[in-house]
Specification:
Elements: E1 2-6, H1 35-48, H2 64-73, E2 79-83, H3 90-97, E3 102-106, E4 116-124, E5 131-136, E6 141-146, H4 147-152, E7 163-167
Antiparallel strand pairs: 1-6, 2-7, 3-4, 3-7, 4-5, 5-6
Helix pairs in contact: 1-2
Length: 168
Amino acid sequence: TTGAVARPGQRVEGADPKSPVGKISLRSQSDNDNCGKAAIAMALSAYSGKPESDTQWGAKAIPLAATLNKELGKYGASATSHRFDRKDFSRIDNSLAQGNPVVIGSGFASASGIGHFVTLAGMRGEGAAKEYLVCDPNGGKQYWAKQSAIRNAPAHTNPSSNVVITTQ
């Protein structure tokens, strides 16, 4: 990771301001268990245009992809969940190329070693130099991370949490 900047509640910088990703409001998770809810709140903010909260759904555990898809329906958008295939970033790249955020769950950026969810808001470079703009609920920060760092991160300890949730 390079140049992490904590800016909870502010708009992400470095994403295309004319597309949904440019409207993402950075969110700091409210507790150690809410990274997934905070990540989908950031993705939702790309379409609602307002800060969203990881506490708005009440329950401690929610089905992330289904909840995001339901919420996005209010704005004419949708979400689809896929298994995170670390060898193939084409779904991630295609969604980001269209200006749509992507939520990933894996061991990437996990302070606990258990796993973590983040929202991706952009990409730059090619090949070994490819990087993604990460909106991290751990502190409400943003930074650029190499694709290789995401690819080589350990899996989430909960197998069902190794996911890519694309939006459109």
